[in-house]
Design a protein that fits this description.
The complex is a heterodimer of chains A (277) and B (472).
Chain A (H helix, E strand, L loop, with lengths): L1 H27 L13 E6 L13 E3 L6 H5 L2 E3 L6 E4 L2 E11 L2 E5 L1 E3 L5 E2 L2 E8 L6 E9 L12 E7 L6 E7 L9 E6 L10 E8 L2 E6 L2 E6 L14 E9 L15 E12 L1
Parallel strand pairs in A: 3-6
Antiparallel strand pairs in A: 1-18, 2-7, 4-5, 5-6, 5-18, 7-17, 8-17, 9-14, 9-18, 10-11, 10-17, 11-12, 12-13, 14-15, 15-16
Chain B lengths: L1 H24 L17 E3 L11 E3 L8 E4 L9 E6 L10 E6 L12 E8 L3 E8 L10 E8 L4 E6 L11 E7 L9 E11 L5 E6 L5 E8 L3 E2 L4 E5 L5 E6 L5 E4 L5 E3 L4 E4 L3 E9 L2 E2 L3 E9 L14 E5 L10 E4 L15 E3 L2 E6 L4 E5 L14 E8 L8 E8 L6 E8 L8 E7 L12 E7 L7 E9 L1
Parallel strand pairs in B: 13-22
Antiparallel strand pairs in B: 1-11, 2-5, 3-4, 4-11, 5-10, 6-9, 6-11, 7-8, 7-10, 8-16, 12-15, 14-19, 15-16, 17-20, 18-19, 20-21, 20-22, 23-33, 24-27, 25-26, 26-33, 27-32, 28-31, 28-33, 29-30, 29-32
Classes of the chains: A mainly beta (277), B mainly beta (472).
Chain lengths: 277, 472
């Protein structure tokens, strides 16, 4: 036993030394070779979902119903704010899609948004989420331009920090939509996890967004940067946006669920945090 | 299992020895203290068989023993592949291809992997009946089967998930397959496997084990009559989002009985019924609860029907018995399509430790059919119908069971009936009937018998039936 403890101790001692050595090496490198995942550290919103019940009403509102044409995407769910579909429990926000006949829809789920409650221009927006799975399951953590009522989609702009198809449990999709590059023409990039998947553990999905750039990251990997040069239309991201989180069922992005899709499916959100520079 | 226990004991012994040494002279642990482990390589065939020994291919009985070869012409990103020539159905050397690949000597430690994977293609699009691992021609305790695997003419990677890798600390059955020609009109074809290995994919998840195919079954259990759990599957969602279901052996499961004074389950999935009362059997794999359960309601020992006497096989045509070879039967719970099924039970018959018994419940009208996809029965040479019936309820005046035989069903059909009156039956006791076929009034021809009806008009609703045969 003694020996074992000794070993662990020595390992612990070794680690900082290695880190120290590494940091020396890092500073010795040309900084252009270094990929910096995030740089904004001034925390301005910290939704940790530590209080059981409904999510904090000072930050989160709800979209209710089916919108127009399934929120524009032929989605199949009816959004509610019932605890069956959305609640905070044991330190996480649970957004649950259920198969049940409700107000003419075959599924229920929830969509939270910070419209008129929390709207920001630029920042680092991230959430730690464990995703659901199964064909036809479509969770998202995303943003819309706060001027959407005056400036309809896609003119208002949309930043999809995380979209995911339940039938592709290893693939994350990050996108922007704007005038001339929306829906199927969105500027988009996929990131595939190796030897892991998004529905078995929590992962951090984020963007770091400033004037004329949006960096997309997952966990400690920066996998995309979108700038005005990348979009095939006007850059509409230098203005305030609000946050949305939802779990859709069916719709054009994923197609309908099938007999193999297990219900209920739950998206677990550990936190949503926003940092400014 | 034996081996592991042995090793554990070994470990404990060494451990206590080491502790003793430690305390006696303050020495550190010996570096030799560790579990005995087996080869943990996952590779089975890359460019050649890997570490299988020289004697590793064991064909199934009646399969073509030479079906497997190493092909140096066809391969997936390498020099050679495993080639399987599935014979024509009429090949005198064997009507199908099938074998196990078993390591010669000690098995592998596969606990670090989550799936058997391989690339495969075939000379034509074809469905291979079975691929798997864990079959060793011994206990086959950890056998896994993926059924109906569709191969195309291009190399595609296939995944056979391990239901619970922690069980496979010493496994000899690396790969097995069985391929026939029922879908190719009896004509043979070739398929190839390459890069066959156990692999840690890391993206197999959402384990969904099941027993009894996910159904919650409640049935009567009988003292001393074991019940074997069937319909054991494990389903995983793979990295590509596909649900892959494999058939798993009971030893992958942990079974739990809600009442161990009534029923206990062993690692082979056999439920022993040891007391009266109710017990529910649940299962799990690696702490994930399985869908499906078996609830046994035990009130008594099973009282089997009298064993029929030995007869010359030429003197008997058996529909349902263990005493004689039975003819093929279409179904045990037949009903008229427009009316739909009302009588329950019989499909399939109860399997009481290998002794099959029909239990009809909600009985009002039901038929055993043997004419549709099987030959009808020519009982011209027979003169008597034997049947054993036990009524599981009180018998009231006016109750009856009418037996009806139909000949040449649907085509100049004739039939005759014989009614057993209630006073000839006894509650909870087997009664044997030997009914002259001439007593089935109206049955003028019995050369193409196809249906035996049980008609009670719900006067009697719960019966056991056994030993149905014609004889002379």
């Amino acid at each position: 036993m003694n020996n074992m403890i000794k070993n662990i101790r020595s390992t612990r001692l070794m680690l900082p030394i290695i880190l120290l050595a590494l940091s020396f090496m890092t500073s010795g490198c040309d900084t252009d070779d270094q990929q910096t995942v995030t740089t904004f550290t001034n925390l301005i919103l910290s939704e940790e979902f530590d209080t059981d019940g409904a999510p904090n009403p000072a930050v989160w509102g709800f979209d209710i119903g089916t919108g127009e044409n399934g929120w524009g995407n032929q989605e199949l769910q009816y959004y509610t704010n019932r605890t069956e579909n959305v609640k905070v429990e044991n330190g996480v926000l649970l957004i649950t899609a259920r198969e049940e006949s409700f107000e003419g829809s075959a599924f229920t789920s929830a969509r939270l948004l910070t419209k008129d409650l929390f709207e920001e221009e630029f920042g680092r927006f991230e959430a730690r989420i464990r995703l659901p799975y199964g064909r036809g399951i479509w969770p998202a953590f995303w943003m819309l331009g706060a001027d959407i009522d005056e400036n309809p989609w896609p003119g208002a702009g949309e930043i999809d920090i995380m979209e995911y198809r339940g039938q592709e449990p290893t693939v994350l999709v990050g996108s922007v939509h704007g005038p001339g590059y929306s829906a199927g023409e969105a500027i988009s990039k996929e990131y595939t996890l190796e030897k892991d998947r998004f529905d078995t553990g929590f992962h951090i999905f984020g963007i770091e967004w400033g004037p004329n750039y949006i960096n997309f990251y997952v966990d400690d990997v920066l996998y995309n940067q979108i700038t005005p040069e990348d979009v095939t239309g006007e850059w509409v991201f230098d203005k305030p946006f609000y946050i949305l989180m939802n779990l859709a069922v069916g719709g054009t992005f994923v197609g309908p669920p099938n007999a193999e899709t297990e219900f209920p499916q739950t998206m677990l959100v550990d936190y949503v945090r926003v940092y400014k520079k | 299992m034996k081996n592991r226990i042995y090793n554990n004991i070994h470990f404990v012994l060494v451990l206590s020895l080491s502790i003793a040494v430690f305390y006696s002279c303050e020495r550190d642990f010996s570096e030799d203290v560790q579990f005995a482990t087996f080869n943990n390589s996952g590779e089975i065939f890359i460019d050649a068989p890997v570490g299988l020994g020289s004697d590793f291919y064991f064909p199934f009985i009646n399969s073509k023993a030479t079906a497997f070869s190493v092909d140096d012409e066809v391969a997936f990103e390498s020099e050679s592949s495993m080639r399987f020539d599935v014979p024509n159905a009429n090949d005198p050397e064997g009507s199908f291809a099938g074998a196990i690949f078993r390591i010669e000597g000690a098995g592998r430690d596969l606990t670090g992997f989550d799936a058997l994977t391989f690339y495969a293609k075939a000379s034509q699009g074809v469905t291979i009946a079975e691929f798997g691992f864990g079959q060793d021609f011994g206990e086959n305790k950890f056998q896994v089967t993926r059924t109906n695997v569709t191969l195309s003419t291009n190399w595609v990677k296939y995944i056979i998930p391990i239901p619970d890798p922690s069980k496979l600390f010493e496994e000899r059955g690396m790969l097995w397959y069985s391929a026939g020609t029922t879908e190719t009109n009896g004509f043979g074809y070739t398929f190839w496997l390459d890069d066959v290995r156990f692999e840690n994919l890391g993206n197999i998840a959402q384990s969904r084990p099941a027993i009894l195919n996910g159904a919650d079954v409640t049935q009567e259990g009988f003292l001393g009559v074991p019940v074997e759990l069937t319909g054991l599957t494990q389903t995983f969602n793979t990295g590509s989002g596909e649900n892959v279901t494999v058939v798993a052996k009971p030893s992958y499961y942990t079974f739990e009985s809600s009442n161990t004074d009534v029923a206990v389950v062993n690692e082979l999935g056999v439920v022993s019924v040891i007391g009266t009362g109710e017990a529910t059997i649940d299962a799990s794999i690696a702490n994930v609860a399985a869908a499906g359960s078996l609830t046994l309601d035990v009130t008594r020992a099973f009282d089997f029907a009298p064993t029929p006497p030995q007869r010359d096989l030429a003197d008997v045509i058996s529909i349902f018995s263990e005493a004689y070879p039975n003819v093929a039967v279409d179904y045990y719970n037949g009903f008229f399509i427009p009316d739909g099924q009302t009588t329950q039970g019989g499909a399939p018959p109860l399997d009481l430790n290998g002794d099959l018994v029909i239990n009809y419940t909600d009985l009002n009208f039901v038929a055993i059919g043997f004419f549709n996809e099987v030959p009808s029965v020519n009982a011209t040479e027979m003169d008597t119908l034997h049947i054993d019936i036990k009524v599981n309820e009180a018998i009231d005046p006016g109750d009856f069971i009418r037996l009806q035989l139909a000949n040449s069903v649907g085509n100049n059909e004739t039939s005759g009936a014989y009614t057993i009156n209630g006073d000839a039956l006894t509650t909870d006791q087997w009664v044997s009937f030997d009914i002259p076929l001439s007593d089935f009034a109206g049955l003028t021809d019995r050369s193409q018998l196809g249906l035996l009806f049980f008609i009670t008009d719900a006067s009697i609703t719960d019966i056991f039936v056994d030993n149905i045969y014609f004889y002379r």
